[in-house]
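User: For my dataset I need records formatted as: sequence, then structure tokens, nothing else. Please produce one.
Assistant:
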Amino acid sequence: MANKKIRKFSKTNRRRLLIVFLFVLVCFVCLIIRLVQINIADGDTYEKNVLALLNYDGQTIPYKRGDITDRNGTVLATSEKIYNLVLDPYVITHSTDEKASEYVADVLEKYFSIDQDTVKSILSEKSNSRYVVMKRKMTYDEKKPYDDFLASEDKDDQKIISAVSSGIWFEENYQRMYPFSTLACDLIGFTSGDDIGLWGIESYYDNMLSGTDGRKYGYLNDDVDLQKVTEEPQNGKTIVSTIDINIQRIAEKYVSEFMNETGAKNVAALVMNPNNGEILGMASAPIFDLNNPRDLTVSGYTEEQLANMSDEDLSKALYTVWRNFCVNDTYEPGSTVKTMTVSYALDQALVDPDENFVCDGGQTYTDGTFVSCNSVHGDLTLTESIVHSCNDVMMQLSDRIGAANFIQMQKLFGFGQLTGIDLPGEASCAATIYTADTMGPVELWTSSFGQGYNTTMVQVASAFSSIVNGGYYYKPHVVSQIASDSGNTIQVIDKTLMRTTVSKTTSEWMKNALYQTVESGSGQPAQVAGYRIGGKTGTAEKVPRGTKARLVSFIGAAPIDDPQLVVYVVVDEANAEDQGQSSFASTIAGKIFSEALPYLQIFPTEEIPETESEESDDNYSADDGADEADANEVDVNDGTDEGDNTDEEDNGDNVSDNGDDGSNDGQAVDDGE
């Protein structure tokens, strides 16, 4: 085999290679020198910049929404801590422990009843994910067994705990809870999914009840050490309401009883302290479950009805159920406002307390328009005009008052205005109140006995309270205090005197007339043995006139000599052939008085007969002879509508759908008492 010729690396090539090597070496040395310089001069700055780019996990710490309590501290609404179980597949699948996935699957099945195959599938398919929610809204009791396992000192468990603890964690949050479910639902309101107050106290005091989330995060200090910081959340404030849970239960008990036994389009009861404007109870039907406000089966709807509803119909149904009749809905009040007409006439010296009147069945205007009374009462004293609820006398008084002053009287008693109650959506009814341009003689007459304009329950109750408490009109309110989450009082909401309405002399006269009304007049079903109760009934013919649709009411105070409690009950279109029986409302009011007064330690002052007939207490339809025929309608001979006044939504306030448009077509019936 021939010898292979060996090529020698020429001297020139060796020289070139050496030059390249030296050049690279010099560059490398220069680079090292430069890096050393940078590290010495700006090393800390660059290190911070690099480390700042790293992903430091931050965690939001949710605040707790403030509680709502009754006046005695009973919790009506609270927030309960809940937990979301979170799995970190990345940590598990990249663990140095080969059995980490098996351990996690075993633990999740044992303590949280999550199928192992489901866990393994997630670990396989989402191996690089850092956040997978495995279970939501867990309670502390559901989470505790796992916490106990993590706290175990058993050596056999330590390896498993070490493998799973970094890959399983819990996300904390709060869920709004209402311990009494349907109790005071219209008044309390509820929250949306993101904890924003809807309706009631939850909405009106949302800013107070809401807090600020806290946060956990990390940052680098001057020594480039990672510092972990926790900013604690600021919890919402506690709202102490004026509501007494027992008074609320009593009111709801008898509203529900009437709805079950007789039924109506709506029944509502308002209980308040006339001496400071505090609302002690506020109930209406239908009710709903605060913990599940969209479940209309609680409100009386059947599954079949709900299944056949369109989205629009369902929304309307929910809206109707959630409304607070006592504040949001309006209606023509009827004879309860005769107390204002008489009181104003007395205060203005337009009538003598001992003056006598003649009721001949109505009044005739110069054009022949005849406005009838509910009966032909004959000779009446002023007191008897209240006791027998005479429309004729009210019309005679309104003529003395005059249209301009009557409008001022309505303003004085708060009709057509917002009371300022601390609840959302209050209706003012301003659009239904006659003005100087629209109030003619017939409108003046019908307004004197509560037809032709609309009010709300809270308006009537506040005005009536001022008449029986000596003339002081207090702003109605449902909250008495605002406290921190630790219980320290931040703000006291005391009584607010808005104005005076009548003199004490007039107040004393009217209290006696109201007492006579319950003792021997139309309000007899509201009597409670041993107590002196005064009150006034009302029966309003609804629009459109002539349909025999009626709204009846009763408002009363006890003890009438020194009123401590006002109860106002409205029954809207009772399921009865004769809807105009005011005894529907006065009987409910009497039952509320019979339980509320002893509870408040207001004791009987009258001798109680040994035997009491309970028959009338159980018979809503019996009127004990107190109601006279409710067939006397206002007869408008010319058949025209005068001074029509439509009840529109005012400033966003919602008006009831009962057809009360406030128009006065002359066909107004009041009270059959």
